[in-house]
């Protein structure tokens, strides 16, 4: 009897394995699936050999076509590459969702909160509130540009004092508090001194949250039980240790603003405006304390990480291309002169400087996999059937490094963003570093002027040099975003020519 039962169990197990390894009808092509783990072994092998997740996705796209379907655990992951496929994906409202799962809920108290990684009616309410409030506070207008210019002035003066002393310092880390202040004026209505050690540590914590797990949620999202078996290697332990101080800082800030006697009626920051909404008798149910912390965390993380990484890469490429650096400085000297720093009004008059920033954003591709989407219902894409709840990743790296379009994508050449006469910036439809569609990056109108003003001011006031004889590597640190490998610079005051 036991032998018969064992045979039945074995047969049922084999049948389940065969069923589990089947691909859905008209599912996009991709590597083979194994029971339970799907394409996991193929993906891990490729990542180990190529060292970067976006190169792994790119290799699969070269092998199987512009739309690739894989399975990792029980998740269906659709990688979309190339102009036509990505354009078709962004055009469909069915892909406006965000993935669900343990990792995506972990950062927001086990719920789907915030605006970056959620969807649905509550997301609609919260995104409208965030966009409306930040516009009311001046984002995208001249008043807020003045806030950025003030932070630039403070940072330049700080760098001047350190340059006089002959200090060498990490470039990206030295800008973090100034970049955080740009956002913090909107979120909390206040700024911090650039030497604030706690804020420097918190900014570094933000950076590290982007390099624990990849953009699709990693192994932890597929096999959440691994947090009990191997909490460190699964990413659970490191991520939790990074999130706790960020949660604590944001809760402390919210409580401080709440205790202000004018809090019940003032709307001079996003946090105070949110607290006013919470106090209303007819408030929407999505206005909760946990939502406020998660909303601030979304904005706090995305702004500091992306702006810091782009600027870090920008100065790194200047070290590797001193001829480009000289052209930038020559343009700044001609337009700005020796007596002031660049302002937002100068931006149209500095096309070469703007083109250099765009070329850095293209070649560095700080967010190579974009922000992941979710198919909110079964939908067809370029002849393939995409199942409901599939994770969909627009591989922006495939656009920004497309050899057919850019000709020499591995070459750093700012002129590709300039008109033939070199007097104006040219736009390219394959260049969408902030994504597209309804889920386009919320902080785009903040990041663009901030990156321009910080970069142009430092280029105008300082000569930048390596600390050592060897140029720092152009390689990136992998994760949800790409950031430059830490490097150290020396600055020297420039004489305007």
From TrEMBL:
Residues spanning the signal sequence? 1-21
- Family recorded in the similarity comment: Belongs to the cytochrome P450 family.
Q: Name one GO cellular component term.
A: cytoplasm
Q: According to its UniProt record, which cofactors does this protein need? A: heme
What Pfam families has UniProt attached to this entry?
p450
Extract the InterPro entries matched here: Cyt_P450, Cyt_P450_CS, Cyt_P450_E_grp-I, Cyt_P450_sf, Cytochrome_P450_fam2
Q: What is this protein called?
A: Cytochrome P450
Q: What GO terms are given for molecular function?
A: heme binding; iron ion binding; oxidoreductase activity, acting on paired donors, with incorporation or reduction of molecular oxygen, reduced flavin or flavoprotein as one donor, and incorporation of one atom of oxygen; steroid hydroxylase activity
BP term (GO), one = organic acid metabolic process
Q: Which UniProt keywords apply?
A: Heme, Iron, Metal-binding, Monooxygenase, Oxidoreductase, Signal
Out of the domains of life, which is the source? Answer: Eukaryota
Query: Quick one: which residues bind heme?
Result: 441
Q: Which organism is it from?
A: Anopheles coluzzii
Gene3D superfamilies associated with the record: Cytochrome P450
């Amino acid at each position: 009897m036991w032998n018969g039962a064992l045979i039945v169990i074995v047969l049922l197990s084999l049948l389940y394995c065969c069923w589990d390894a089947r691909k859905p009808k008209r599912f996009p092509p991709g590597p083979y699936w194994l029971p339970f783990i799907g394409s996991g072994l193929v993906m891990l092998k490729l990542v180990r050999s190529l060292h970067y997740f976006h190169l792994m996705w790119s290799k699969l796209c070269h092998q199987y076509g512009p739309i690739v379907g894989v399975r990792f655990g029980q998740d269906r992951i659709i990688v979309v590459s190339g102009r036509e496929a990505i354009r078709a994906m962004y055009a469909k409202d069915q892909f406006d969702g965000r993935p669900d799962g343990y990792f995506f809920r972990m950062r927001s108290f086990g719920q789907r909160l915030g605006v970056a990684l959620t969807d649905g009616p509550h997301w609609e309410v919260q995104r409208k509130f965030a966009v409306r409030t930040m516009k009311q506070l001046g984002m995208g207008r001249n008043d807020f540009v003045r806030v950025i210019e003030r932070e630039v002035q403070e940072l330049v003066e700080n760098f001047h004092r350190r340059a006089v002393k002959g200090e060498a310092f990490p470039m990206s880390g030295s800008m973090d508090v100034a970049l955080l202040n740009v956002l913090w004026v909107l979120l909390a209505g206040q700024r911090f001194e650039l030497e604030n050690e706690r804020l420097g540590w918190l900014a570094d914590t933000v950076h590290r949250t982007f390099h624990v797990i990849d953009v699709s949620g990693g192994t932890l999202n597929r096999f959440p039980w691994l947090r009990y078996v191997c909490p460190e290697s699964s990413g659970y332990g490191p991520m939790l240790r990074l999130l706790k101080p960020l949660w604590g800082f944001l809760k402390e800030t919210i409580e401080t603003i709440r205790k202000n006697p004018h809090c019940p009626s003032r709307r001079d920051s996003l946090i105070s405006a949110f607290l006013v909404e919470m106090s209303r008798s007819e408030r929407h149910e999505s206005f909760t304390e946990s939502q406020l912390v998660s909303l601030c965390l979304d904005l706090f993380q995305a702004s500091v990480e992306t702006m810091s990484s782009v600027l870090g890469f920008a100065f790194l490429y200047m070290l590797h291309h001193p001829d480009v650096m000289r052209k930038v400085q020559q343009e700044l000297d001609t337009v700005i002169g020796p007596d002031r720093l660049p302002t937002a009004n100068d931006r149209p008059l500095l096309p070469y400087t703007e083109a250099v920033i765009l070329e850095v954003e293209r070649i560095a591709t700080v967010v190579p996999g974009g922000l992941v989407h979710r198919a909110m219902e079964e939908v067809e894409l370029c002849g393939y059937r995409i199942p409901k709840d599939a994770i969909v990743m627009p591989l922006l790296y495939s656009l920004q490094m497309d050899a057919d379009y850019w000709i020499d994508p591995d070459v750093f050449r700012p002129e590709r963003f300039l008109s033939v006469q070199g007097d104006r910036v040219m736009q390219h439809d394959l260049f969408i570093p902030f994504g597209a569609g309804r889920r386009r990056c919320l902080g785009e109108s903040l990041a663009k002027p901030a990156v321009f003003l910080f970069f142009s001011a430092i280029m105008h006031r300082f000569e930048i040099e390596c600390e050592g004889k060897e140029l720092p590597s152009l390689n990136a640190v992998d994760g949800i975003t790409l950031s430059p490998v830490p490097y150290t610079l020396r600055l020297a005051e420039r004489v305007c020519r």
